[in-house]
């Protein structure tokens, strides 16, 4: 199941970004966004960890989920309140995290 499908199945609107720069543009236009779900490996000049750090700095209330199929991270590698999942992730665990973070 793709991330967008998982988010929508959990009952939330998913907004896709082409890359980190596009995600920032979307966040600048959409103050209603409460959670960002990003992969570390993204196209463009900024990876998902840098995006997560920028989001934490510019939009502190936004919750962060970071995923990767290539890297293993500790919570100390993430911005405050960021949550990491390795691919392949368990759909139920990720859905629970999304629901908890959106509550």
TrEMBL record:
GO molecular function, one term: kinase activity
Keywords: Kinase, Phosphoprotein, Transcription, Transcription regulation, Transferase
UniProt-listed SMART domains: REC
Keyword Transferase: yes
Modified residues (4-aspartylphosphate): 39
UniProt cross-references to Pfam families, sorted A to Z: Response_reg
Domain Response regulatory: residue ranges: 1-102
InterPro entries per record: Bact_response_regulator (IPR050595), CheY-like_superfamily (IPR011006), Sig_transdc_resp-reg_receiver (IPR001789)
Record GO biological process: phosphorelay signal transduction system
The protein, known as: Histidine kinase
């Amino acid at each position: 199941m793709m991330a967008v499908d998982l988010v929508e199945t959990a009952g939330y609107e998913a907004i896709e970004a082409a890359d980190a720069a596009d995600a920032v543009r979307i966040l600048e236009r959409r103050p209603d966004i409460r959670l960002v779900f990003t992969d570390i490996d993204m196209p463009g000049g900024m990876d998902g960890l840098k995006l997560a750090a920028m989001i934490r700095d510019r939009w502190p209330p936004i919750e962060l989920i970071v995923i990767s199929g290539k890297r293993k991270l500790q919570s100390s590698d993430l911005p405050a309140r960021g949550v990491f999942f390795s691919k392949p992730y368990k759909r139920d665990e990720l859905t629970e995290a999304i629901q908890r973070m959106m509550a």
